[in-house]
Amino acid sequence: MRVIAGAWRGKRLVAPAGERTRPTADRARQMVFDVLWHARWAGRGAIEGTRVLDAFAGSGAMGIEALSRGAAEAIFLETDTAALAAIRTNLRACRAEARGRVLRADATAPPPAPAPCGLVFLDPPYGGGLVPRALAALAAAGWVAPAALIVAETEIDAPTPEIPGFLPVDRRAVGRAAMTILRRAGGT
After folding, report:
1. 3-state helix, strand, coil in the chain (%, to 5)
2. 173 bridge partner residues
3. pLDDT attached to residue 157
4. Residue 169: Cβ-neighbour burial (10 angstroms; 0-12, 13-18, 19+)
5. CA-wise closest residue to 185 among 169, 171, 165
6. DSSP character string of 92-148
7. What angle (nearest 5°) sits at the alpha carbon of residue 102, between those of residues 101 and 104?
8. Is the alpha carbon torsion for 110, 103, 74, 157 positive or negative?
9. Which end of the chain is more exposed for a tag (fewer CB within 10 A), N or C?
10. Residues 13, 59: contact at Cβ < 8 Å?
């Protein structure tokens, strides 16, 4: 696993050992960031200078990729001890500790946000229907900015997440995963 593009292109990232974490594949990350970078409803401004939330962060690869491409800050929410250690290791390897904040927190019951995020990555364990639950909890706790884009990874055969207040703008299949991009309603 490596950073795909930006300041740390090619930098190797570690993933937590074991089966509890399923890191987003390089190919899937590339596709997500290409879509965000080039879509008329997103563009470079969806990433550059944006505060990013990587919930169910695992290795932190999505948030670190956003930082590499110019995000101002990334906050990583994770509960697994091995995953928390991997995120910290990856931030150190990129010399990004000052722009990354790692919190031991459950995305379905998050602490209050220090500030809202314009780009949110959700990659929960498959099969638990956690995307709607987590997104509702994160929005209620102030983590999701009014015009935020949310990238939710689910298993390929899962239906498009339907979440009140969030509109799907894109959905792509990559291997066993489906990447759904939603925009908070009322956003531009």
Report:
1. 25, 30, 45
2. 178
3. 87
4. middle
5. 165
6. HHTT-TTTEEEEE--TTSPPPPSS-EEEEEE-PPTTS-HHHHHHHHHHHTT-EEEEE
7. 145
8. negative
9. C
10. yes
Radius of gyration of the chain (CA): 15
Question: Which pTM was predicted?
Answer: 0.92
Q: Residue 179 class from Cβ within 10 Å (0-12 exposed, 13-18 middle, 19+ buried)?
A: buried
Amino acid letter for position 108 = T
Give pLDDT, residue 111.
97
Phi, psi (degrees; rounded to nearest 5) at 70: 110, 5
Structure tokens at 51: 């505060």
Structure tokens at 124: 């929960």
Q: What per-residue confidence (pLDDT) applies to 188? A: 47
Instruction: Give the model's pLDDT for residue 123.
Output: 92
| Residue 185 pLDDT | 84
Q: Reduce the DSSP state of residue 172 to 3 states and report it.
A: strand
Q: Is the pLDDT of residue 29 over 60?
A: yes
